[in-house]
């Protein structure tokens, strides 16, 4: 029995082989996109991982009289466990001033930072536990959460093992696998091109089969 291979059949076989090869190349990225996309859709543990941690404030203990400066855009007075704080926005940047001298408030000592952070993490002891290490304006808790104090804004940020895991999943999802920005961008573009090619070849094979 003799089979005659027509040119159209040969092209279809080539398209099928190319479709198969591109599909094999995209197995790992597609698996990564699917798994991480499912995580982003369900968002398990997001609330704790990206919890907004704030300085604990107390009612002001006395009436204050303050002469605002011409270049101040915003003024905020708060009282923490360390005392009163004057927070101003000046020339679109934040400043933390001494309420008496109106000069930049001195950076807190390590015991003061620990006292401030300990007071803040009491709101969720299950997540934060206790402060176990202080380095400058950053601290580590007994549960492995890293805390950072922005003294000029008198604000806090927290990053736990779960936060780092979710951030790593984002890098995997967007093909940021090497840690080099340019190379990761090339990988991302290449992945999209291959995905478009896979789709186009699939449509072509479907139409050819129907003909």
Provide an overview of this structure.
This protein is 46% helix and 19% strand. With 211 residues, the protein is an alpha+beta fold. The protein has 2 domains: 9-47 and 165-210, no CATH class; 51-160, no CATH class. The chain has a 4-stranded antiparallel beta sheet. Helix 1 (7-25) packs antiparallel against helix 7 and helix 2 crosses helix 6 (161-173). The chain crosses the membrane at residues 21-42, 186-207. Keywords: Membrane, Transmembrane, Transmembrane helix. InterPro entries: PepSY-ass_TM (IPR005625). This is PepSY-associated TM region.
Radius of gyration (Å): 29 Å
Portion in strands: 15-25%
Q: Strands of the biggest beta sheet: in what spatial order?
A: 4-5-6-7
Query: Oligomeric status of the shown chains?
Result: single chain
Number of helices: 7
Structural class: alpha+beta
- Could you say how many structural domains there are in total? 2
Q: Assign an overall shape.
A: elongated
Give a brief description.
The protein is of the alpha+beta class. Helix content is 46%, strand content 19%.
List keywords for this structure.
elongated; alpha+beta; disordered N terminus; 4-stranded antiparallel sheet; 46% helix; 211 residues; 3-stranded antiparallel sheet; 2 domains
Secondary structure layout plus pairing:
Blueprint (H helix, E strand, L loop, with lengths): L6 H19 L1 H16 L3 H4 L22 E9 L2 E8 L2 E5 L12 H12 L3 H4 L2 E5 L2 E4 L4 E5 L4 E5 L1 H13 L7 H30 L1
Antiparallel strand pairs: 1-2, 2-3, 4-5, 5-6, 6-7
Helix pairs in contact: 1-7, 2-6
């Amino acid at each position: 029995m003799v089979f005659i291979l027509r040119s159209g059949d040969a092209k279809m076989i080539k398209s099928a082989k190319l479709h198969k090869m591109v599909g094999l190349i995209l197995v790992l990225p597609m698996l990564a996109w699917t798994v991480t996309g499912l995580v982003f859709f369900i968002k398990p543990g997001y609330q704790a991982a990206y919890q907004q941690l704030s300085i604990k404030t107390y009612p002001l203990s006395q009436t204050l009289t303050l002469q605002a400066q011409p270049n101040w855009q915003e003024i905020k007075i708060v009282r923490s466990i360390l005392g009163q704080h004057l927070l101003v926005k000046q020339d679109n940047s934040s400043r933390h001033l001494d309420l008496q001298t109106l000069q930049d408030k001195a950076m807190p000592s390590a015991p003061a930072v620990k006292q401030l952070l300990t007071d803040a993490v009491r709101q969720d002891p299950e997540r934060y536990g206790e402060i176990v290490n202080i380095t400058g304006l950053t601290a580590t808790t007994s549960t492995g959460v890293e805390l950072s104090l922005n003294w000029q804004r008198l604000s806090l940020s927290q990053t736990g093992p779960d936060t780092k895991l979710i951030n790593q999943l984002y890098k995997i999802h967007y093909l940021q696998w090497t840690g080099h920005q340019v190379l990761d961008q090339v990988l991302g573009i290449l992945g999209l091109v291959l995905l478009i090619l896979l789709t186009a070849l699939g449509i072509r094979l479907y139409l050819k089969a129907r003909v």
